[in-house]
Structures are given as C-alpha cells and as structure tokens.
Amino acid sequence: MNDLYERHRAVIPDWVALYYQHPIEITHGEGRHVWDADGNRYLDFFGGILTTMTAHALPEVTKAVSEQAGRIIHSSTLYLNRPMVELAERIAALSGIPDARVFFTTSGTEANDTALLLATAYRRSGTVLAMRNSYHGRSFSAVSITGNRAWTPTGLSPLQTLYVHGGIRTRGPYAQLSDARFIDACVADLEDLLGQTRDVAALIAEPIQGVGGFTSPPDGLYAAFREVLDRHGILWISDEVQTGWGRTGDNFWGWQAHGQNGPPDILTFAKGIGNGMSVGGVVARAEVMNCIDANSISTFGGSPVTMAAGLANLAYLLEHDLQGNARRVGGMLLERLRAIGAAIPEVREVRGRGLMAGVELVKPGTDQANPEAAAAVYEAARESGLLIGKGGAHNTSVLRIAPPLTLTVAEAEEGAAILERALRSL
Q1: Fewer CB within 10 Å, N- or C-terminus of the chain?
Q2: Residue 276: partners with Cβ closer than 8 Å, 6 or more residues away
Q3: Nearest residue to 328 (alpha-carbon basis) of 259, 419, 246, 244
C-alpha cells in the first residue's frame, strides 16, 4: 500500500484529497461492505460519496452493464439510443416537472453547469442566487456559485453570484427564531437582495446541503422563496445530486419538502442513479430546456452502458421500495445517533433525514468547530471497520453518514455501535 501511495503522490495532483492518515485501497465490495487490499472488511456508511446508492456489486446492475457492454459500449448522442430514451422517460415521469425534457451528463458538476447554462440563456442574465454553505461541483462555473470557502479555489467567476440566507437552520443570524419566523426572515432577506439587483437568472439550492454537512432549512423555505422568485420571473434550480432517488425517506426528491408552490423549473441529478457508473443529468420543462439556440451534443452523456446501469438500478430501487427502507431504517439510525450524541459533550447536533445523517462536533461547552475531534472519530471508526465521510463549512467538523439504501436494521445497529465507541474514545 505504501508503494501505491507513493505512486499516487507522484502522478496525481496534490489537491486530490485522500481519506485517512494511512489511505486505503478498496478492492471489492458486496452489499453494504467493502474490502481493502490488506483484506480488511468495512461496513460502508458513505457509499463512494452517496454514489453506491443501492448496494455494492448489485447483481441486477452488473448483469445489465455486462449485457449492454457485450452489444455496444458507445455511440454518442448523435444516434438514437434506446436505453437513454427509456431512462429519460422514467426520470421525466418521476421528476414532477410538467412537459419535462431530460439531458444526460457524466457527473453532478456537469449537470449543474448545464442547468446554469440553461438558466442564464433563458433569462439572458449572468446573475445567479445561491445559498450560503452550498456546494455544486468542482468546475469553473460550479465553484463560482459554491458558498463554502473550503471548495472555492478561485475568486474569478463567469457569473455574478449573490448568496442568500437559509441553508443552515441552527447557525447564523436567524438560528434562534422559530421555523416560521426563520422562513419569514429569509424571505425578507431575499426580497431585500432582489430589490438591489437587476435581472437574476436563477436560484440554485440543495434541499439538504451535502458537502456543507447535511444542513437544511425548515420544510417550506424554498416554497416561500418560489413565490418571490415567480414574481420576478427567476428560475428555481433544485440540486438533487445527493438528495434524489428517495434517500431522504420522506420524499423521492428533496424539493418535495418544499413543493407547496409546485416543482422546480430545473432539477439536477447524478451520483446514486448509476450506482457507481458515471451518470448525471438535468430535467427541465420543455420551454427552458429548448431555449438553447446553438448546436450541442454529448459525447459520453447517455452512454448505452451507463444508461443500462441506471435503468436496472432505478427499477431495483422502485421495486424494493428503497425510499421506504431509507425512511424506516434511517429514522431508527437517526434516533440511535441522537441518543448517543446526547451523552457526548463534543456532539453539538445530530441532523438529517432518511439515510442522510450529519453529526456535528464542537469543542465542549462552545459552538466552536472541532475538526480535530472529527478527524479522530472518523479515523477510529475506520480502524473498527466503519467507513464514514466528513464535511461542513465550519472547518470540516461534521461526520457524514449515508449508507446504501438497502441498509438493514442489524447493519444500522452495528454501524451506530462502532461510531459510539469512536465518539466515546474522545
């Protein structure tokens, strides 16, 4: 492993982060478990950053990929592509967006790039609203609308970005308000901002902020924003790269917790739909999607192989009610984590929804972020056979927990017990 690490450092950029003081090479997986090159077995509570959505080596997906690869691997969007059309039909129907069109990409970053292109072209404006603490990808345009300084390597931007309050419920100037007054204050902030700004193209928002540490506003915030946006003709882009496909348990899409005034104008997705294959995409009503007046294609978006994987994965998810499993097992896991956190002085908050949980760590008796404690806990969890993630705007002090949606009650209990021991080791 040391040899591979040195080879990695010799050819991969320094800014490509590796987890753990002693990085591990994952060689294979099955179900909710993976193994490293030394033969160690881990319960996977991060799923390749919420990407292995159903299970590792899910037979239905591997079979679909193998069979499609045996027919044809690539053709591009210049030719009719049956798997792409079939998956687009299913996603359009599930999206909740009327008269929907679907464009496939290879990643969530590219999906958000496309959404920004559509919104700015449709509105003829380069001004975009984004949420504080947000993350939307690593491309030039995506980092320019990211409200998390740890992920913004440049101040240059192709867009003018203005940041709105509301992405974090328990921090910031409105944290002490009730949910209703919090929403009112955020709406007033949005109104004030728009009163000083010309011709905004869109608001882009994650229903639950992923890299930001699984923070979220009260349900209904974006519905209240929608009333204001509609008066100004501003589009709403819902970034569902991490919240889509039933992960939150309560809803199939994160926007549905804010859907009182209808669906978003544009929805972006990626990660889980391919179960590890490179699939991303954009859904928009036809008027918005078709506003592009130049030629465009995608060489790799909508690849027959990745589309076959997406079709098989989506069918498995729906047939086995994995949204329901996320609600039931995720709810139990969150209750268990909250009970554990109540006894640990370093735990400021356990938050989340479905199989999407964040454990924020602080210095005891304060609100000050504790990245050292977060690093110690996730190292200790790995040593005991549990893989988790980390994030958060306040110095990476949030443990991110997002297992595959087939997680069992026994596995949830096992993971919670390992995490409890790691937290108590502080």
Answers
A1: N
A2: 48, 51, 52, 309
A3: 246
Whole-number Å distance between alpha carbons of 393 and 211:
8
Q: Record the tokens describing residue 139, joined without a space.
A: 């491309």
80 burial via Cβ count (<10 Å: 0-12, 13-18, 19+): exposed
Q: What tokens does 214 get?
A: 């699984």
| CA-wise closest residue to 55 among 275, 273, 327, 269 | 275
Phi and psi at residue 63, in whole multiples of 5°? -65, -45
Can you tell me which residue has the tokens 């109540």?
Answer: 342
Could you read off the pLDDT of 94-118 as tens digits, one per residue?
999 999 999 999 999 999 999 999 9
pTM of the model: 0.96
Backbone angles phi, psi at 376, to 5 degrees: -65, -40
**Does the pLDDT at position 157 exceed 90?**
no
* Per-residue model confidence as pLDDT tens digits over 321-367: 999 999 999 999 999 999 999 999 999 999 999 999 999 999 999 99
Type of residue numbered 320: H
Rg over alpha carbons for the chain, rounded to the nearest Å, is 21
* Rounded-to-integer distance, Cα 305 and Cα 68, Å: 6
pLDDT band at 414 (very low <50, low <70, confident <90, very high): very high
Q: What are phi and psi of 205, to 5 degrees?
A: -150, 140
Burial label for 128, CB within 10 Å (0-12, 13-18, 19+), is buried
Which residues share a beta bridge with 358? Answer: 351, 400
Close Cβ partners of 272 (under 8 Å, ≥ 6 residues apart): 47, 50, 51, 52, 53, 54, 244, 245, 247, 313, 405
Q: Are strands 398-401 and 389-391 parallel, antiparallel or unpaired?
A: antiparallel
**For 375-397, b where at least 16 C-beta lie within 10 A, e where not — what string?**
bbbbbbbbeeebbbbbbbbbebb
Q: From CA 68, how far away is CA 340, in angstroms rounded?
A: 46
- At 284 the three-state DSSP class reads strand
